[in-house]
Amino acid sequence: MSKPPFEQIVTEHGPLVLRVVRAVLGPHDAEDAWSETFLAALRAYPELPDDSNVEAWLVTVAHRKAIDVTRGNTRRPAPAGELPERAGRTGRPEDWDPDLWRALRALPERQRHAVAYHYLAGLPYAEIAALTGGSTDAARRAAADGMRTLRRTYPADPADPEGRTHQERRLGRTTAPATDTTGVPTP
Known about the structure:
Elements: H1 6-25, H2 30-44, H3 54-75, H4 98-106, H5 109-120, H6 125-132, H7 136-153, H8 166-171
Helix pairs in contact: 1-2, 1-3, 1-5, 2-3, 5-7, 6-7
């Protein structure tokens, strides 16, 4: 079996790689990391064995490019202030939910990577452990802890008519405590 043309690889796996680097790096650095991932992959693609898991290979390349971007960012001076992110109006894949990014950015690095690689890229925990270092159990724990934190901290679900967070909806809670007729919260 021969390998498909590289253009087909980009078409099939490009959106997945973009989602992963966005989750790991955020919306500002993701496109550069995506481009660097596919440039590096293009150079290495001829030597890739025919029976390789291309998706896992691309996520590995993206992981390494994300590390490069993170290291590069630590060498640059920090900006004085942060501009507010605006929600996109075009419906393109580049549009980003700033609330989700803030919730992801608040996660510890290992948890953010485990969530991105498992829930966005669909990698098994053994491959995540190989990418990030550590054991399969540690990768599983980091992904579970990250998702638990996201469920608690990610803002209200827009589909919920009561405006509850994902965690509140799951637990059956309302956003405001119940009050009696005098306006005093009830236990």
